[in-house]
Amino acid sequence: MKWEEESYSRKDDQGNLVSIDEYEREQRAGLTGMSRVMTKGDLKLYAICGVGFFLDSYDLFIINLVTPIWTYEYWGGLQGKKSPTYPLLLRGAVNAAANIGNIVGQLSFGFLGDAFGRKFVYGKEMIIMIIGVILVISLPNHLKGPTRMKFWYLFGMRILMGIGIGGDYPMSAAIVAERSSLRNRGRMLGWIFSNQGWGTLAGSIVTLILLGCFSKSLKAGHYNQLDAVWRLQIGLALVPAFATLYFRLTMPESKKFQQSGELSTFKVPSLNSLDSSESYTKDPKTETSEVDGMTGRKASIVEANVAPASSSVKMRASFQYFSEWRHLKTLIGTASTWFLVDVAFYGVNLNQSVLLTAIGFSTGKTEYETLLKNGYGNLIIAAAGYVPGYFLTIYFIEILGRRWIQIQGFLVTALMFAIIAGDYNHLGTAGKFVCFTIAQLFFNFGPNATTFIVPGEVFPSRVRGFAHGVSAATGKVGAILSGVLFNYLSGPTKIGVANVLWIFFACSILGAIMTFFFVPESKGVDADVLDFQECQEAIRIKNGH
């Protein structure tokens, strides 16, 4: 499969400077029919990077549907006990294990992707994820010792799986941003991230199908068959993983990333001391554009003073770039808002089965009926709230912009949590269920989507992997805290579910505030162009022009 590039690059194949205005004119002239929505290059990106995110989501959120089965199979739920004894903190740790691995994967793959290139690392994260999934479903039931030992094994293997999943976040975001056209970049990142919704929806559908396939045995009380159900639930993710692995491993490096990396070698020269800039070749098409006159001369000087960067230079680039407050401020904004949304988002989604039980939805006369109703509840929330939210983001992101979508999403989810928590003891099951569904809708037509999209756009390609990895990893810290503490704090002897929802409310309000003050609008903005202009501005400041 051929990888295509539709993004802006400051130099064409002959090495001539190309202005952003000229690029945009050519883009508009080439748009016809379906290409205004998604070009062939976009479809290829979606097929390769999107499948990865589908698997990421499927593997991360299937734990929500597997946990009740583990509770029945391993913790006394099939021995007639009314309250199975799956320890709350252990359950929280196993649920959060993939997110712990995410942090390692996001930081390491983001940094390595900037230092050694996208081609060097892309596909390796998929291999790690595949190995992790295989080891999870290979849990040996004959393992000697207490049941806790089996679950600490699962904890370790889910961390390994999470490293692979985490590595996909900065790499897929950077690759899509660096290969998509400027007019369609946000929408493409939205399309890629929407596979999180499809992965979650697929998890619910697969669970219901598997329960249906084993219904005869389960209705007859042969609950040992649940062992096969959960292994298939998790293991089916391997099919599309193997299908997409080859294309990731054979991806070429993008021009945009290579040209951006050159700026890491730039040192500000004097205009008077450098004559080589005058001989720099310029494309006749850009003679009337922004590369004319003094601006053009400074652009030529920048080009004359950059070169392909070594790995050691690239390793230092992120630390030099974020040593400036204006850049660090943006990173604080993208990281903190991702942290705040993940506290609430993962608190709800990793424990959705617990919440459905707490509000009285997932109940049944038998274990089979309870599991089936839990599957239906997750399916309804995914179909009615989760997936539509992504499509609203995709449709409106290039119209309304990122900041507006993120702020309104934070505020609506805060309102839903306040309604449920404020009247928790009187609001009926249907009312709570509707509020949770609306919250899911505005998580995804809101900060859950935009906190992934914005870090892929506001930072230049040479530091994008690291910045996106730091932002995502900070978010996962919130996910881990929520995943572990939710089970502990929501217990009847602690603060209870209602007060946990008040914590989610506070996080959402704070997220809206941080977005307003720290997160810039990235609609129609090419961070690599701004990075290049900063080099030109450095020349102006040094030389007084």
UniProtKB/TrEMBL annotation:
The keyword Lipid metabolism does not apply. Residues 273-292 are annotated as: Disordered. Residues 45-523 form the Major facilitator superfamily (MFS) profile domain. PROSITE patterns: MFS, SUGAR_TRANSPORT_1, SUGAR_TRANSPORT_2. The keyword Transmembrane helix applies. It is a multi-pass membrane protein. CDD domains: MFS_PhT. The chain crosses the membrane at residues 45-72, 92-113, 120-139, 151-177, 198-218, 230-249, 375-397, 403-421, 433-454, 466-488, 500-519. Signal peptide: none annotated. This is Major facilitator superfamily (MFS) profile domain-containing protein. It comes from Lepraria finkii.
